[in-house]
Amino acid sequence: MRVNWKTLLISLAIPLGVGGLSALVTRRAMDTFSHLNQPPLSPPTWLFPVVWTLLFLLMGLASWLVYTSDAPDGVIRRALTVYGIQLGVNFLWSILFFNLGWYLFSFCWLVLLWGLILVTTILFFPIRKAAGWFLVPYILWVTFAGYLNFGIYFLN
């Protein structure tokens, strides 16, 4: 398979850009977060940017595999549209949770995100199995994030 480096780099840059912008917008709220009561199994704060960077790279790679597939244009467009929507929902969750401190609403928003990731994964699998598999760690991490989010709501 011949790699079109331009489309690969754009596909990687989009989720990394969303994640970077999210980190930039929420960076001042991290002090508040560190003072919240945390549920059991809360990872150290340094782990979050590491995991999210890996997840954003996997998302970008998955979207590139879908974009460059030989599936019908309508199938690709639908899958990438849902993918784009879930990226936007992901970005807004950070603002709702960190900047606004709306922990219960953020949890509900995260459930929406989880559903959109599931739909994206289901749409990606028939186009390229690897693309679907690349999203599995994302849905697992967001499941864990839901536990953390609800725990923070409950404990604070």
Describe this structure as you would to a colleague.
With 156 residues, the protein is mainly α. Helix content is 81%, strand content 0%. It is elongated and about 50 Å long. The protein contains six helices and no strands. Helix 5 (103-127) runs antiparallel to helix 6. The chain has one domain (5-23, 45-155): Ferritin, CATH 1.20.1260.
CATH architecture level-2 label? Up-down Bundle
Class computed from helices, strands and strand pairing: mainly alpha
CATH topology: Ferritin
Tell me, rounded to a whole number, the average pLDDT: 96
Q: What is the total number of structural domains?
A: 1
Count of individual beta strands: 0
End-to-end span in angstroms?
51 Å
Order of helices and strands: HHHHHH
Helix content range:
over 70%
Query: What fraction of residues sit in β-strands?
Result: under 5%
Q: Report the biggest beta sheet as strand number plus sense, adding barrel if it closes.
A: none
Radius of gyration: 16 Å
Low-confidence stretches: none
Tertiary shape: elongated
Tell me the layout of helices and strands:
Layout: H1 5-26, H2 30-34, H3 47-67, H4 73-99, H5 103-127, H6 129-155
Helix pairs in contact: 1-3, 1-4, 3-6, 4-5, 5-6
Task: Tag the structure with descriptive keywords.
elongated; about 80% helix; about 160 residues; Ferritin; 6 helices; mainly alpha
Short structural summary:
The protein is an all-alpha fold. The chain has helices at residues 5-26, 30-34, 47-67, 73-99, 103-127, 129-155.
